[in-house]
UniProtKB/TrEMBL annotation:
PANTHER family on file: GLYOXALASE FAMILY PROTEIN (AFU_ORTHOLOGUE AFUA_5G14830)
Pfam family, one: Glyoxalase
Protein name as it appears in the record: VOC family protein
Coiled coil: none
Domain VOC: from-to ranges: 1-121
Amino acid sequence: MFDHVGFVVSDFDAAKSFYGTALAPLGISLLTDFTYSDNRHAGFGVDRPVFWIGTGKTVQTSLHMAFAATTRAQVDAFFAAAIAAGGRDNGGPGVREIYHPHYYGAFVLDADGNNIEAVCHAEQ
């Protein structure tokens, strides 16, 4: 349904480092980093950039972004990497049956208070 998503961060270099570390266990890496119209942009993805951060006018509220994991081990590794990179625990890895019986997710808050999740829907 979505082609890509992006949002403004308050500290571009710190956010780029955080997302580079936190998303690596999911196979997602920094693919491009450039300045355009006086704003910096960084695009992360697998084959092409689909998740973007940048500078500019900051958003007044936080958001929720969930990244797909193919295994529960990837969710665990995402959580560990995100915490090590400075993320704050917002719900450690585990099954959330409220969504469905196999929903396995982990949640961290980035430096701007955004709720970043990795989720696996497999029956493991």
